[in-house]
């Protein structure tokens, strides 16, 4: 079942759960080399997809709230895309032609996706007694 997109679906599903919970998250560390590569690719693809469809100004914190990725993961993905530029005294996110071409190729692929509208889940709220028992 390798190279069929199931790992990507699980990553997307975990972030959809984070969105439903309203918490920013990151994978458990340490990751294997292949796991880290997979997550970095996933973060980059999701950020570029979001930025291409976004009109206006957006901050790294806004991106974190929209995606539930940590600020550190977002910064690493943007630096790996060479998308952070310093312009007129401030940092800007600029997507290069190379990144846009890769995004167009990515958009043409038929990928498995999680339909977040079908997600019916409520996070467990622990009482003080339950929390003491877990510690």
Summed up, the helix count is 6
Global outline: globular
- Broad structural category: mainly alpha
Strand content: 5-15%
- Biggest sheet, strands in spatial order? 1-2
The first-to-last residue Cα distance is 38 Å
* Biggest pleated-sheet summary: 2 strands, antiparallel
Mean pLDDT: 90
Order of helices and strands: HHHHEEHH
> What oligomeric arrangement do these chains adopt?
single chain
Number of strands: 2
Helix content: 40-55%
Q: Write down the Rg.
A: 17 Å
Question: Uncertain spans, ≥5 residues at pLDDT below 50?
Answer: none
Describe this structure in words.
It is a single chain. This protein has 135 residues and is mainly alpha-helical. The chain is built from six helices and two strands; from the N terminus they run H-H-H-H-E-E-H-H. It has helices at residues 6-21, 33-52, 60-67, 71-80, 97-108, 128-134, and strands spanning 84-87, 90-93. A two-stranded antiparallel ribbon has the order 1-2. Strand 1 (84-87) and strand 2 (90-93) form a beta hairpin. Helix 2 crosses helix 4 (71-80). The model has no long low-confidence stretch (mean pLDDT 90).
């Amino acid at each position: 079942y390798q190279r069929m997109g199931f790992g990507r679906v699980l990553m997307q599903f975990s972030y959809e759960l984070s969105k439903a919970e309203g918490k920013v998250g990151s994978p458990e560390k340490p990751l294997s080399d292949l796991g880290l590569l997979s997550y970095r690719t996933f973060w980059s693809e999701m950020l570029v997809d979001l930025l291409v469809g976004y009109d206006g100004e957006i901050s790294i914190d806004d991106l974190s709230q929209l995606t539930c990725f940590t600020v550190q993961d977002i910064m690493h993905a943007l630096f790996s895309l060479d998308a952070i530029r310093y312009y007129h005294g401030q940092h800007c996110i600029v997507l290069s032609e190379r990144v846009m071409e890769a995004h167009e190729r990515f958009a043409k692929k038929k990928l498995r996706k999680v339909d977040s509208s079908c997600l019916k889940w409520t996070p467990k709220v622990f009482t003080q007694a339950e929390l003491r028992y877990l510690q």
